[in-house]
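Limitations
The structure tokens in this dataset are predictions for the assembled complex, not deposited experimental models. Users should treat interface geometry with appropriate caution, especially where small molecules or nucleic acid strands are included. An illustrative entry is reproduced here so readers can see what is and is not provided.
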Amino acid sequence: MSGESPRPAERAHSTSAPTAAAADDLTATAPRRRVSELLRDLRRLALFAGKRLLALLLTVLIGVYLTIVIANMGGQIDELRLAQIENTVAEEIRADPAFHDLPSERREQLLNDRMQIEIERLRLDEPFLIRSVDYLRQAMLLDLGRAEEMHSDAGSRQVAQIILERLPATLLLFGTANLLVFFVAVFVALGLSRRYGSALDRSVIALAPSSAAPAWFYGIFLILLFAFVVPLLPPGGMVAAPPPSGGWAYAASVIQHMALPIAAMFLAQIFISIYSWRTFFLIHSSEDYVEMARAKGLPDALVEQRYILRPTLSPIVTSFLLMLIGLWSGAIILEQVFNWPGLGTLLFEAIGHRDTPVIIGSVVIFAYLLAVTVFLLDFIYALLDPRVRIEGGSA
Amino acid sequence: MSAPALLEIADLRLSYRTESGAVRAVDGVNLELQRNEALVVLGESGCGKSSLAKTLLRLLPRNAVAPEGVVRLDGEDILGYSEERFRREVRWVRIALVMQAAMNALNPVIRVGEQVAEPLRIHRGWSRRRALERAAEAFSEVGIATDFLSRYPHELSGGMRQRAVIAMALVTEPDIVLLDEPTSALDVLTQAAIMNVLKRIKAERGMSFILITHDVATSSELADRVALMYAGQIVEEAAAERFFTAPAHPYSQMLMAAVPKLHQQQPPRPIPGRPPSLLDPPAGCRFAARCPQRIDRCSEAPPSTTLAPRHRSRCWLHAGGKR
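Predicted assembly:
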């Protein structure tokens, strides 16, 4: 044999990548060695997962703590609260006829006592720094607590209840719109990358700057056009009032209400998404192995699927998952414009009411979702791309 | 002429549209290739030899103008085939390619074996098992252990990847294997090993090769015939022993003088000057500006002259332009 037989380094590599080798019938490895390799691999996997989890937890911790500090304005909000408590208590005492006859110093006494009770209930007498750590502990344990001002439509003051009640509306609207934009963009882009430079391609590029305006901006014009100039669709809300009674009629009404906001989001995002995916596919379809696949006489569809889409699946899945968790925050202004009872509206109201538990609650959940997604992505990458191998251990 | 050629290229032209005008990368190329023959297309960078390869397999970039001329494979003009027919009947069935950048010619996320077996499954409709068995045969033919079939490309060294790509070109037993600078990215030892593999395959399988390269020394290992390309044209086409020992065209002579040889007394002589721009090639002989034997007629385009059977040159010195 001239030249090179498999190098020693590659042999060593082959034992350090047993998942690939063990799973394949073409490699005949002794079963015992296979088991020990599998065990070592699992141990390494666990170590890797542990490290990643720790790092992500730390990230969430820092993110949530920053939110707590900021949402409380670094403790500044306590003074606002104190003033608010004083107001409320004074008002209660003034309004209660039972206290009308009391002498003023007794009233003062009563006022102070009641304020003291309220302050102790809210633990405003403790320094903010200590309380912030306690808030952090609760938040990390997903004990979102009670809202200060707001309540759910069902009357609950639990932050979790308030958020859960709004979640379906946001998921429905933004889920539909984003999935639509994502899949339309990816597939149109794939087609355009094949017809690079065509009139269609150039017009999509020319239209890309249309995404400079946000969805709510288009929303305003769409409402004007399709709800008032040509009254085809409802201008806002999620369902007709009073809600139709039948299940189908209800669904039809919701779909009618969703049409305009979805159209607004679609218009605002579609061209820029197609543009960026098209460029992405163009770059990846000029890889040598794509040309090689064409030379091999593979049909275009197969080249696209196996040589363009398959190697680029990691970034596609990444942006898909990030898009999915992005649904969580909703969109404050768009929901306002369309009067959509979702999380965006909730956050808007919570900020208006300075209802810190609600603000922190939604941020905590978002942080956890993000962390879980990133954690999942680490493993999805390894599944999708054999080049992404788990580091660690001394091979 | 002798036996009908396996591949016959007549007056092939290809140009690219660029902002500054049409670049005539292949400008009237005539070539022929017999069965079980290795033709080396020599030429310096940018002379159009890769464009020639790409034209043969229709792997042209978007700015290429549709090629003109005739490319006959076993007497049939494949240039006139529809895209679909060309894909089904020519690509990899008749002509296979070993790419210039073989390091990156394998899909990073698919096992090497699958990629090598793929043409069989597509063109012959073979089952996965059968195609993989054939791929394993091709692997041992090019000298890679068959357990590398289940590896991913990044787990192979450069030389092994190049061998895998060659194995891929062999699986369907095409008539012609087109090798576009197959060893230029490899170290000298690996280059020699790969050339040995190719020589052995040629001897055993009776395939035809077109080897496109700028490397005179390496190409001489395999060549039966040599075609020297300059500025989009073939300036000399001859049998290998003739070309390497007694080249006819002034450019061929200077090129051979520029190649360092073992036990050589004088240092190799470089060719002064640079090749002309293909955007606006000179009207006459394209080598005239660098040619020491230049005569007046060189300002007219020289015809291709037959010096001996299957030996042609494009030079006024041979076309009787001396007077």
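Some entries come with short summary sentences. For this one: The first helix of chain B runs from residue 49 to 57.
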